[in-house]
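Bit of a strange request maybe. I'm writing a small parser for C-alpha cell strings and I need a real example to test against, not something I typed by hand. Could someone generate the C-alpha cells for this chain?
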Amino acid sequence: MFRIAAVCTGNICRSPMAEYLLRTELEAAGIDDVVVTSSAVSEWELGNPIDARAGALLARQGIDTAGHVARQFDASDFENVDLVLALDTDHYAALRRMAPTPEAEEKVRMLRSFDPEVAEAGLSAQGIYDPWFGDEGDFETTHRLIMSAMPGLVEYIRSAARPADS
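Reply from user aminoacidic:
Good idea to test on real output. This should exercise your parser:
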C-alpha cells in the first residue's frame, strides 16, 4: 500500500482539494492500492470542515467532502507515509524542518513538481497561493493548478506503488 499526505496551512482548502482530486484521478486510472490523506502545518483550522467554496467546487464534480475534518501533520506521520505533497513553498520548508530523519525529509515534494510546465522551474514557481483570501475564481485557479500536476503525479504513483518484482 502506497500512502500519500497532501499538506497546506489549515487543511480546509488546498490540501483537501488535492486529496479528493487525487483520489478521483487514481480511481479513474484503476489504481486502488494507494491511501491519500491531507493535513495542515498549523493548528488554525483543526476540527473544521472543508471550506464551503472548495467543497462546492468539488461537489460540482460529484465529489463528496462531507466527511472531511481538518487535522494537523505531525512529525510522527512521516512513519506512515511514502510521499508528502506540499501545496506551497512555506509548507515545503516547514515539513522538511519537521522531518525527523534525512529519509523522511526526502519524502517531501511540492505537488506541482509533478506538473511538467513548472517541474524544472524551481520551488518558487511551484507554489499554489491560498485561495481562502479570495473568491470562487481563486478556488478555480487552485483547482486548475492542482489538476495540472495530476497526470505526472498519477504516473509517478503508478511506478512507485508497483511492487519491485513487477
